[in-house]
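User: two proteins, same treatment. go.

Assistant:
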Amino acid sequence: QDLMDAPGTGLPPMWQPSTRKSSCSSCSQSGSSDGGPSNGCSHERAPLKLLCDNMKYQILSRAFYGWLAYCRHLSTVRTHLSALVHHNIVSPDVPCSARAGLTADIWQRYLQDSTSYKDQELLRLIYYGGIQHEIRKAVWPFLLGHYQFGMTEAERKEADDQIRTCYEHTMAEWLGCEAIVRQREKESHAAALAKCSSGASLDSHIQRMMHRDSTISNESSQSCSSGRQNHARLQSDSSSSTQVFESVDEVEQMEDGKQSKIPNGTVPNGACSPDSGHPSSQNFSIASGFSERSFSNEDSALDTNKSSGSSQGKAGGSDVPGPQDADGARQEEKLQGQDSLEGEFAPGGSVDFVPVGESSSGVLRDRDTVALTVVESWADSEAEKQSLVESEDNLSEEPEMESLYPQVDSLAVADLANSETSAVSSSGVTYSPELLDMYTVNLHRIEKDVQRCDRNYWYFTPANLEKLRNIMCSYIWQHIEIGYVQGMCDLLAPLLVILDDEALAFSCFTELMKRMNQNFPHGGAMDTHFANMRSLIQILDSELFELMHQNGDYTHFYFCYRWFLLDFKRELVYDDVFAVWETIWAAAHVSSAHYVLFIALALVEMYRDIILENNMDFTDIIKFFNEMAERHNTKQILKLARDLVYKVQTLIENK
């Protein structure tokens, strides 16, 4: 203002400041009465004052709106997250430090006198310090609800007896159903093998009749040349058949040396090509379960026809070495035996051919043998049961054979129609066809997963895998309407490792699945977990939330799916799984029934800086956590999860 009032000497007239008249009338009147120049007044400083007032107003507005956003934030926390945690904050140091967890001494004193420790005190010790490994087998049934805290030893024994009786009764039921399922599968395999063998028999008959009607040369050289050509053509047919049925190799291991027995039965009508040397294409859907031995028999039968025709020609005009005569005779006998048996089971009367000179008594003996093979009773011994389980594991890898199981009734064995296996077990329990079909599907799913469940862990020997299978089949039998879903074996395995008792593990697994069932596709808990994770990270770490939102918006948190489905079982090694699971079970009574959310958030927050620095998108974060599986610092994760729970609790209380 002083510079503006100073005279502008030395400046051009256009740059000299002109004297402004004051906008204030009082100042202009006093200036004119004095007759001197006006020096301005305080009213000329009004724009600067207005600017300061405007800035002050903006500062207050921003502070107000910041406070309002914080209030809305707290309202959101209270409204949407208050149900995720308990409002009562449990201290780790009151009444004593819980860092050491639940030790064997404390547990022994509790068993001797249940009034020495309150239930909540034991749970607090487990929540903050875990359980000593040696007593996990005794404590876990209490945490999972098999026992109630405060039970006496007699009451616990009574509970064990009840669950053992229930488990044995359930096993007896599903074992009876499984025996029927196995019998149905045997009959389906028998019918399928009969269908395949009858097709091969038809082609061999046509080929042999064509050879008998043809002109046979008496020259030895021509006969040898014809034999070589026929042998080459048969090799081509055999290779073609092997290419079409290359999936047969995997099932060949199952038959346990019984494939040489041709099943007794009638197969549905179907056209076979006489030129191809193997069944028509409409039979391929069931051929994948057959033994490759049946196709080799087919090729050998055709080869025998060719060689027998050649030997007949040679007998008229040339000498044939003795060993070849012996081989030809043995092959001819084998062919006649096969033709007679297969001719007996010609499909639907379409082929009415019985080899001349074949005795009916031999056919009857073969039919009796096949009938005994098809209706072979279910083995009660553990050794045969184990062999059947292993064979079914190999079978379950073939999707074509799995598609056969619901349609086994359509594959009828005519000679056994009157003695067809009914859905009645040896104990007299009747099972509906729908129940049998449902159990068949679940049985093969279970056997697939059991065989590949934690194969590298020392505990899972074949005997313990059998225990795992028994428990899972018993649970699914009681919950057949839900059925088996992949991942259930992962939840059962750690329980069996710790408890090492079928009936006790069955009871604890049933209690665990009351919560975990909702995470599987038939439940709706997974979407709720994702929504809660979104709210938690938006409130507790807005910067990381913005990064997730900007880089492809993976705030749906689908990368957490496996974490919630299996309670982090595949993210951690077994010892860490034990610690995390028992903390989750104790947290439900101490701090939060949704503690898995805070463990998941702790996993993300532990690698927060890496995620931000690398600007990870959805694909990057999935790959990162897959590579980090079984490498996490579990103690640090659990500590961070407890801190996050405490942070939400303090936000709710507005402290």
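Protein 2:
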Amino acid sequence: MEAPLPGLSLLLVLLAVGWGSGAVTAWTSPGVCELVQSTADCTGRWLSSVPRNLRGDTEELLLDDNTIQVLGNASLLSYHQLRRLSLTKNRLELIKPGVFLSSQGLHVLSLADNLLFTNYSLTAAALSALPALRTLDLAGNRLTEDMVSVLVWNLSSLESLSVARNIIMRLDSSVFTNLTQLLELNLEKNYIFEIDQAFEGLQRLQRLNIAYNYLPCVVEFSLTQLRVLNVSNNVIEWFLALESDDLFELEMLDLSHNHLLFFPVLPRQSKLHSLLLKDNEMSFYQRLPNGTSLADVTVQFLLIDGNSTNVTTVSLWDEICHSNLSSLHLLDMSQNQVWYLPEGFLAQMPSLTHLKLNQNCLETFQLSEGDPLAMLTELDLSQNQLVELGAEVGARDILPSLQLFNLSTNRLRVLPPGVFAYTRKITTVDLSRNRVDLCPQPAVAGEAETPPCVDIRGVKTLTHLSLAGCGLRGLGGHPFQGTSLMHLDLSDNHQALSGDLGWLQDLALTLQVLSLRNTSLSSAAVDFSAFNSLVRLDLSGNSLSIFPSSLGILKLLSLDLRDNCLPALPPDVARMPLGKSLQEVYLSQNPYNCCTLGWWDSLQRVEGLHVPDGQEMTCSYASHTLSPRALPEPVLWSCRWQTADLALLYLVLALPTCLTLLVAFAVVFLTLKQKLLKMVKSQCGVSSPY
């Protein structure tokens, strides 16, 4: 596109959104850019060059998603006050050396997703003329480490640099030598397999991202000034910090999605508050599952660097004993191979608030006063092999701050008595996919003790409880007495419901979300009328053949009726309180009758009602499965006959017969009139006028 003629710059349209202090003034450049205050937005305009008719006081120029290939020496000549320039997603191959001579105050430059590898040396000369540049984005330009070294060689003012999504393979001390002011460096999604003292000269570096590369290990980690290190999604097998008493500023370390075999050897002194170790191959080795003890066994790491050899000896099971983790708040060790925790492991983390140990091999987990965890608010032990959750009797300081406790998908049958008595802030408990029953349990004839059960009665702070797939049988009594549950999931319990919902009456005033999915519910007589606070109800996957009448008076926002045996909903459902309040309803996988879809038509006219599975709905007609949204005309006519008023139908059918008989009678009467009259007169003895 050619640049507009200079004279056309007088045709700028002023769009003032108010005058005076703080008013925002918007300008529109003819056919090209939008200007708001000192920002010119020329994104996605198919520009092949930089517009030259913009305001001279433009400070921010956005040229993303265009087709610019070259920045010539005169491209930015008119913009002496330019501070931010973005050329992301163009076809930029060359930036000529003199292009920035008139824009010496440029602070932020984004050149991501271009083709700068073609003329990188000339582009480097252009960048060297930016003494005030603070942020540079070179991501996605097919750059090698040598090209990057040339491009940033003279950029000593840089504070933030991104060279992500390039083809960097190896880093050494020569690549970032002069970046003494650098605070943030992004190297993610390259092909880096080796780093040799590449960051030692970056004394101010605080945030380093090397995620999605091919690093096999991190050894002698010594960047004491670093605050955030992301080395996730590599192939790291071990992480060893330098043995030093120096204080590391490290606050967040992300080693997730690697191949770690051992718990990382962390700095002895640090400010670490988040340690992410998800999806590795970690375990502890103080003892093995076969009973073998490895308490005194060590492993030696042999580090060879040129002619020097360094041997680091580490105990297999107490690697962190010399690390100060008192400031740690978040520990994520999910998706590993941990089957036990060393004694005193959690005692070193008194500030821990979030602990994720899900998807491991834990068989037992001990809650004791030795591991106080007084600050812990979230504990996730789901998807393990837990058969026992231990707790010291009388240990009144166990998990006093716990709010979320996830024990789902284990092999638990019982919890320690009164385990929730000391969790004064517990709000959410997930016991789904365990073989547990709720107290009280009826006594079994011939047995002195009642079956084991989980007692949640009297836990006043509990608001969310999931018991899905627990094999609950015939709930009765008052299992939720003294609680204020708002969310309850009882799905996938085929024997949980025994006729009525009397055992839920203690929740009638508080329960807002109830899932009874796949609970073999078949009786339409189940009474929901007492649950006036319900806003979401899931009845899917059951055997309901009649719509429960008690639902009509509820003011639900969401109702799920999928996968039942319903031939129809009530014709007046849209006029019920339920129909007026519903915002979302699921209806598919039911054997609806194509000839009784009046309720469906009325629901479609309800304003604000969303049927997410409406496209999947079907109905049956004469052994055919059809879509209620597009019924063939013959089917509609046939349905009209089938659903017509029978009395009217009989009247219509009888009317022609009656008319025929009446006409026949009239014809006979007129034909035999004289004979009939004579016969009547002769019978009555009346004399003839003749």
